[in-house]
Amino acid sequence: MISFDGVEVTYPNGYQALKGISLDIPKGQFVVIVGLSGAGKSTLIRTINNLVVPSKGEVRVGGRSITRARGAELRKMRAGIGMIFQTYNLVKRTTVLRNVLSGRLGSAHPMASLLGLFPKSDLLMAHACLQRVGIPEKAYVRADALSGGQQQRVGIARALAQQPQVMLADEPVASLDPPTANAVMGDLKRITREDGITTLVNLHFIDMARDYADRIIGMRAGEVVFDGTPDEATDQV
Ligand code: ADP
Ligand code: ADP
């Protein structure tokens, strides 16, 4: 579903953040990327939606090069890739429902959200996404009135509303206390599995990776230093 072919990233200041990554990630796999801060995890994830453009090599999603895609084709490919962020990136002063609906706006006119013009099917879908992340009753609450765990559930619901084939999560639970972090990771895994979504999650800590990953990829200084199952990771990472 996702393949990296000799992907190198050199930032404008000359720093080489990825040093030739080649990986194949099959459809439906739940992959956790672990490594210390600065290892290149965020950079790797961002090449998948072409937010970071490789200096060499390419990334293919569903068999098509997103690295080479431009214009309408790039927008269409990005619409199939949900993103979840460490600090949620919600619009704080508006409702949870509107935040979730913003995941549906790829093809709609930019003014639609301001005017409250959503197709009824999108509204129903947004409510269904909130149901799936366990906070259906929060639809009309302001996003910034929610706890951290609830805000990240909104982040997941917003990504789900895109009906993505791929989900990318950059340190999604790093701002949460351990019990909440576990609950959110459990929900993310369950929901992406139910929908057959191929998922990549960056985590700081190997313990949590072992509990949830189908596959663990360990990174250090821009290279893959481990690639295996949680069982294989026990002694090596
Ligand atoms: P994290 O490690 O959580 O990804 P960082 O603080 O490393 O957060 O990065 C925050 C932002 O700053 C990112 O957009 C990243 O691309 C950018 N950034 C990180 N390091 C540098 C750097 N040395 N020069 C310029 N931008 C950087
Ligand atoms: P991680 O997610 O594992 O913390 P990152 O991918 O954020 O790692 O960063 C990898 C390295 O690239 C870090 O040393 C970081 O400072 C550097 N970096 C990230 N973004 C930029 C940028 N925009 N410009 C220069 N260096 C960057």
From TrEMBL:
Keyword entries, A-Z: ATP-binding, Cell membrane, Membrane, Nucleotide-binding, Phosphonate transport, Translocase, Transport
InterPro entries: AAA+_ATPase (IPR003593), ABC_transporter-like_ATP-bd (IPR003439), ABC_transporter-like_CS (IPR017871), ABC_transpr_PhnC (IPR012693), MetN_ABC_transporter-like (IPR050086), P-loop_NTPase (IPR027417)
CDD domains associated with the record: ABC_PhnC_transporter (cd03256)
Signal peptide boundaries: none
Alphabetized PROSITE patterns for the sequence: ABC_TRANSPORTER_1, ABC_TRANSPORTER_2
Record has Iron-sulfur as a keyword: no
UniProt KW ATP-binding keyword: yes
Annotated GO MF terms: ATP binding
Record-linked Pfam families: ABC_tran
Domain ABC transporter stretches: 2-237
Matching PANTHER family: AMINO ACID IMPORT ATP-BINDING PROTEIN, PHOSPHONATES IMPORT ATP-BINDING PROTEIN PHNC
Name of this protein: Phosphonate ABC transporter ATP-binding protein
Species the sequence originates in: Thermostichus vulcanus str. 'Rupite'
